[in-house]
């Protein structure tokens, strides 16, 4: 068998095996194994991406050599490998930048377990991207939920405990809705394999009106995955879960794990039902409205925060809204724009959480805005990284966030006048609000401050990781045409 065809299987199985060893290895051995595992996943996905980019076609990998619908399958193509590569890069950089604080926040006897959970999260996200079976997707949804809860609780204090409790309550509701939707879909079609589901549902695409049972399944899956990824108004778990966990966990939750849920939703929309059936269900305007509302409400909430961690967390609510607004337009161009923003948000948000943690450390471990004065001078890599990430998500030209807004605007204009006006107004208002809270923070971290602040010693490894993150965010804005074309080409083969 061609080596390329084993890459999806390796990306799921390898971190599962590594997680077992991380749980029993000493602290340093577990950390090294986890880093090597995520690095190998990045290389394997990059290898697949380059092969597909050079002309190789998509394929399915039958587990145990039993093809679907009887066996379990993984599917790999240009779109899957591109997204998996981007997310694994952010996961590696998030671990790299947050490793020093993880060693402080997590008890020494439990650090091996922490890196075991990271491997488990890596396996689940890759499985969500590559799976060709809906129930397998649900299994790894649950694995992601367990891993995310453990990542939040790894920093054992009261705020993390309450944040984890809120996360689990909301996400278990989302899991239940997803399971109900999958069960109903299986009852109607007798299939769980995505290709078989598409064939079984194809005749219903011409039904007018669409059967209520199909509409119900679409709503259940959309709401369930929307809750788990933090779509407004189901976002109440985000601030506590992202803000108070150790920086590596916050970065992984925001830029890595949540994107697996969104990619699975896009897979359901495009490959299970198809855009025509999704439009006929009437769910698109609701997704669009929730996405637009999330952009505004997340931005408004961010302007009211005095804790930099919560400000960045509420900013995530707004950025998730951009992705869902693209999904809600339900066109090929809007979905490609949503996928591109997933990559942009993944790179920028991991950098913001990591740099915010370094700024806090250089301010005597204080996260309040007034306490961060001068932190950008005391820790130059963190200050530059936070500024670059803030500029990207605000939409400054030559950075990835600017291109995301351009692509979403172009997609909206191609739909109709209503969507064009709604998207342009939402983008204008959100850009203004983002400028307010990000500019205020950037100015604050560089203004003169008391020189007697007790700053922690800067970590060389974290500083190097932030420099790499900054460079990647600049490249995403100045040399992103190949990535966008890859996403567009991969979507056509999806």
Q: In words, what does this structure look like?
A:
With 494 residues, this protein is an all-alpha fold. The chain has two domains: 1-269, no CATH class; 283-494, no CATH class. The chain has 20 helices and two strands. It has helices spanning 7-24, 27-53, 78-105, 111-130, 134-153, 158-189, 194-201, 212-229, 238-244, 247-273, 275-281, 284-303, 308-329, 332-361, 375-378, 380-394, 400-415, 417-446, 460-478, 481-492, and strands spanning 59-62, 73-76. It has a two-stranded antiparallel sheet with strand order 1-2. The model has no long low-confidence stretch (mean pLDDT 89).
Low-confidence stretches: none
- What's the arrangement of strands in the largest beta sheet? 1-2
Mean pLDDT across the residues is 89
Q: Write down the domain tally.
A: 2
- Helical percent range? over 70%
Structural Rg: 21 Å
Quick one: how many beta strands? 2
The assigned structural class equals mainly alpha
Mind summarizing the main beta sheet? 2 strands, antiparallel
Strand proportion, as a percent range, falls in under 5%
What is the end-to-end distance? 23 Å
Coarse shape: globular
Number of helices: 20
Would you list the SSEs in sequence order as H and E? HHEEHHHHHHHHHHHHHHHHHH
């Amino acid at each position: 068998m061609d080596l390329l065809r084993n890459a999806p299987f390796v990306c799921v199985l390898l971190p599962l095996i590594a997680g077992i060893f991380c749980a029993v290895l000493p602290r340093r051995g577990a950390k090294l194994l986890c880093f090597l595992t995520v690095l190998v996943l990045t290389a394997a996905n990059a290898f697949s991406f380059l092969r597909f980019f050079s002309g190789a076609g998509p394929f399915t990998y039958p587990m145990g050599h039993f093809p679907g619908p009887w066996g379990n399958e993984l599917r790999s193509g240009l779109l899957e490998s591109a997204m998996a590569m981007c997310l694994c890069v952010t996961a590696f950089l998030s671990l790299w930048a947050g490793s020093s604080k993880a060693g402080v926040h997590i008890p020494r006897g439990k650090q091996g377990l922490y890196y075991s959970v990271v491997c488990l999260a890596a396996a689940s996200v890759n499985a969500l991207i590559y799976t060709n079976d809906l129930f397998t997707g649900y299994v790894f949804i649950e694995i992601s939920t367990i891993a995310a809860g453990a990542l939040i609780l790894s920093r054992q204090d009261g705020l993390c405990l309450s944040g984890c409790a809120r996360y689990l309550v909301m996400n278990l509701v989302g899991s239940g809705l997803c399971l109900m939707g999958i069960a109903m879909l299986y009852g109607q079609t007798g299939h769980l394999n995505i290709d078989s589901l598409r064939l079984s549902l194809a005749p219903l695409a011409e039904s007018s009106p669409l059967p209520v049972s199909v509409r119900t399944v679409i709503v259940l899956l959309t709401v369930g995955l929307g809750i788990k990824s933090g779509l407004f108004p189901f976002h109440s778990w985000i601030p506590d879960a992202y803000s108070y966990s150790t920086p590596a966990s916050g970065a992984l939750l925001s830029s890595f794990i949540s994107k697996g849920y969104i990619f699975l939703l896009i897979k359901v929309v495009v490959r299970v039902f198809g855009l025509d059936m999704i439009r006929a269900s009437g769910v698109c305007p609701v997704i669009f409205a929730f996405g637009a509302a999330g952009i505004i409400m997340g931005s408004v909430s961010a302007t009211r925060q005095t804790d930099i961690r919560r400000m960045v967390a509420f900013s995530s609510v707004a950025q998730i809204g951009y992705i869902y607004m693209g999904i809600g337009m339900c066109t090929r161009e809007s979905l490609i724009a949503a996928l591109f923003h997933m990559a942009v948000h993944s790179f920028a948000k991991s950098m913001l959480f990591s740099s915010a943690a370094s700024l806090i450390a250089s301010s005597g471990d204080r996260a309040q805005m007034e306490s961060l004065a001068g932190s950008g001078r005391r820790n130059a890599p963190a200050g530059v990284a936070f500024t670059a990430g803030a500029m990207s998500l605000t939409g400054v030209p030559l950075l990835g966030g600017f291109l995301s807004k351009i692509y979403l605007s172009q997609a909206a204009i191609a739909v109709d006048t209503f969507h064009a006006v709604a998207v342009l107004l939402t983008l204008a208002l959100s850009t203004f609000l983002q400028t307010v809270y990000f500019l205020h923070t950037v100015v604050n971290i560089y203004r003169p401050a008391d020189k007697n602040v007790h700053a922690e010693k800067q970590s060389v490894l974290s500083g190097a990781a932030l420099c790499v993150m900054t460079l990647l965010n600049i490249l995403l804005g100045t040399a992103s045409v190949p990535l966008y074309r890859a996403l567009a080409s991969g979507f056509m083969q999806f």
